[in-house]
Amino acid sequence: MKAGFCDLGTMEYQSAWELQERLFSGVIAQKKTNTEPTDNFLLFCEHPHVYTLGKSGSESNLLLNAIQLQAKDAVFVKTNRGGDITYHGPGQIVGYPILNLEGLVKGAREYIEKMEEAIIETLAAYGIVSERLEGATGVWLDTAKPERTRKICAIGVRTSHWVSMHGFALNVNTDLRYFNYINPCGFTDKAVTSMAAELGKDIDTEEVKHLLAARLARIYGLDLVSVSKSELEKR
User: Fold this and answer.
1) Which of the residues are catalytic?
2) Residue 232 contacts residue 4 (beta carbons within 8 Å)
3) Enclosing domain of residue 212
């Protein structure tokens, strides 16, 4: 299945969300008119400092008020993805697959598991052993040791008419101090980490993007075709 791939670079969260919504609505419209094959997209980007709250989340998991948010040069956005609160910022790869899931997976759980698998494989290429945590989405380290369990990648998606949007946030060179101001994904007893923190050095983000896109393409069975940001914004 062909999918347009675009690295949007640094983009405000609200702008990226609006772009996703347009593409998402377009794929749903194609499905309703029996257009075959439909468009599909894989978008990568980084966001300026932002805290986003999913539909099932609680604002009490944001530990800053409006003035403190401004002091941290951050904003707060309520979004329509699943999950609770998370942080996006520089040094983090945010991925938004907008895919027609029919024929691709049997359900949302399999869709998320395949996303997790691509991230687990990418981390393994750097010698980082990661895994799933029962009862939680995302990718984690040291799940057998509750006192050391830490999250390296958050996942929150939305699906409608068997089309996906939103996605994952992989901490590469992320400033982890920003996670101190929330209960990440609603957890009060779990830490957050990054590739840089685990390996003790800055990581080449462009290299990680290349490896991760290749693994996502293989696991989902996508043929990625480059598409420019300007082309996407015309849709």
Assistant:
1) 185
2) yes
3) 2-233
